[in-house]
Amino acid sequence: MSTELLAASRHVAGRAAGPDVGDTSLYLAFRLADDVYAIDILRIREIIEYSVPTGVPMMPRSVRGVINLRGAVVPVIDLAVRFGRTATGVGKRTCIVIVETEHAGALYTLGLIVDGVNAVMEIAAGSIEPAPAFGTRVNADFIAGMARVNGRFVIILDIARVLSIDEMVSITPPMIET
Amino acid sequence: MNDAAQDLAQALGTFMEEARELLAEMEAILLRAEDGSGQEDDMNALFRCAHTIKGSGGLFGLDEVVRFAHVVENVLDRLRNGKLQFDSDLISLLLACQDHIANLIAAIAENTEVPVARSDQLLSRLQAVLGTGGGAVVAPPAAEPHSSEAGIGAGDGGAMGSDHWHISLRPGRQVLQDGMDPLAFINYLSQYGKLLHVETIVDAVPEFAAADPEICYLGFEVALASRASKAEIEGVFDFIREGSQIVIVPPQSQISAYLALIESHHQDAERIGEMLVACGSVTANELAEALAVQKQQEPHARIGEILVEQGAVPPQVVEAAADQQKRVEEKRSGEARIVKVPSDRLDALIDRVGELVIAGVGTHLQISRIQRPDIQESAEVLLSLVQDIRDMTLRLRMVAIGEVFSRFPRVVRDVSRELGKDIELRVRGAESELDKSMVDKIGDPLMHLVRNSIDHGIEPAETRMARGKPARGTVELRAYHESGSINIEVSDDGGGLDRDRILRKAIENGMVAPDAHLSDQEVYRLILAPGFSTAAKVTSLSGRGVGMDVVRSNIEALRGTLDIESVPGQGTTMRLCLPLTLAIIDGFHVGVGSSHFIIPLDMVVECIELPPDVGDRGYLELREQALPFVRLRELFDEQGPRHPRPRVIVVRYGSRQAGLVVDRIHGKCQTVIKPLGPLFAETPAVSGCTIIGNGEVGMILDVQALVRLCAGAGHGKHAKN
């Protein structure tokens, strides 16, 4: 496990203990292709090393398959495909971010394949700007806002929208193309 | 503080649960009594149910429940003593009372308004039965002349003087921890009479610093003027009997009884003596005499022996007490056989055990690589133990379907009365097991089917007679296991489905073209369509046409199917076929590319090699029959390593056969089905997944859906090829 992954993991694990600092929130920043994205850390359950998911037949390409997370079967989503780009390749720092999202009133656990996690960062609510109407490579609906951190733009994702089960299910591909 | 409130809430929850069970038992007994199949002990059991509800309701201060249950109890008491006879009206009244108690408890649980008016209405009917005249009933009157035939009062010749009961209570040290307040019991005694004197024994209370506030150090000596029977007074202490020392000395007892009481507390005999004097139960003189006698006696003679020996208590009382004790024992042992566990804990356990199995298999694999027979042997033992544990754990979630069936006798009774039909319900296979979560979900669909059978299926008695059938209709509920699924049938011996009428109605509604040719099955299935009803008139039960499609969709949501069989003039059978979800299925483990798939074993007929000359045809010849097959590798777009000689798994579903071409066969395995969750709800070919020995996830194939899918896509496929 890379050191940054370890540090980020610890941060996730210890998040409950940390004091609530004003109106800043903690975000987990990760890389995907050339961009840096961030997810509200309260959505994140853990970060695990990449393991090859088991494919589920006849699912959209954005659903890479399922993994066995200590006995629970957790679907793994390829965010890049979800954003309409080519599938994420597997590198040394590829890992799976386990997040929780709500579906029909119940919490549902999903994994996201990312190219690597950067850090846990504090972002003040005031410094988050709305997403530009166009120009980002991600569908504007998926973006909760953008923030400038260390001289770089970070895209804060609206996880509920990105991982909307209803929407992901509805793009099931035509059933048979043999 | 918070904890205490929580404990109370928890105890109240337990009370609710227990009350519901008792009410269910009452209902079962009443229904049995109605159809004449009552058992010997039923009347006593019925009384005990009401009594326990009243008693524990009193502990929680649920006054309305106590007020109501008290009168019900009186009626039941008379029934049990043969002073009243069961008739159909009384049973109906008692069933209504049982419902009302359930409503009262539900109202308390949901914090809604308690339906007091209904209580009064039922109470006045009960009073009429009791013959004490109508009018509002006050809370259990203290001096009400209780039926005391079981007691030792008038029946035994001893005049009821001004003497009183003496009760010596030494609650067990744990009572407070058990959530019981001894004071509540003593207060409750005043329901049976007047508390003349209560003396508290504080001798056992230690130094303040050393005292544990959760331990009850106190003892009580109570003088009670009451005409209640000994059994009734004993009954008050049912809940704290365990671990407590309770001695009840009836009025007019000989001095020896008090002596026995003193003797039973021999460590502080003098103290008790003083207490008895303080309570006015014995005089100082008598005490002195008694203590003198005691000195001459065997120091450790048993109290019961002394009592009987001295004729202090009439034999029937001893018998009754022994009987009561035995019953309490039986009840306790019954409780000990069932442990209630929240289902999320069970699920967590099952998950962990699944992990344990996987870890066990992994370890076993590692160990088999090293050449150490001794370690290998112990790993073998460990693994087989782990697998045993898994099997047992999975069985924990299985419950008998009888739990669902048990509510139907009442439904059938009520509905058939309402419709003026005479219907018998038969239940078979109530012991068949299925997953608890299924049990919770099939209740409503089944209810609907049963009501339908009664309303639409069974003909009125005159019609039945005319058709040469017994006037009494029969509805049967039957459950049985069949190849990895459970079948539940609701059948009736009624008129059967009217094919012509259904078809006519369907054509009228535009659901079917007038010139369509439909098989019987297809016609019957029309009744499952939304909005379909052939009922000539809408009753309160059915006829609105919203029922069967809901039933169907509920069952389909459980991945089950609903079949209809009907013979005109002879009856209809609705058959639900449901998977046993989460139950272990016997699976057949195959590999395609690098993926693992599980095929339910009961669908597998045989395995053959794929003939090399099959080319790109979609069928092969098997024993002179054409067998259509599907290549899973292509269908699922699997990459992974290809096998030079693929295998065909021949599967059967219903009457059809098909082949599935796979790369590898791993063999039979026990499979724990894990649901795939909402994301995969629409996935056609996969019904669930499982974690296989090496920790990877395997998909469980839904063979039926898979073949249907291929059959539907067959034309397009060929066109493309």
TrEMBL record, chain A:
Task: Note the InterPro entries from the entry.
Answer: CheW, CheW-like_dom_sf, CheW-lke_dom
Residue ranges of coiled coil: none
Give the superkingdom in one word: Bacteria
Q: Which SUPFAM superfamilies match?
A: CheW-like
**Short name of one Pfam family:** CheW
Domain (CheW-like) spans: 24-168
Q: What is this protein called?
A: Chemotaxis protein CheW
- From which source organism is this entry? Candidatus Accumulibacter contiguus
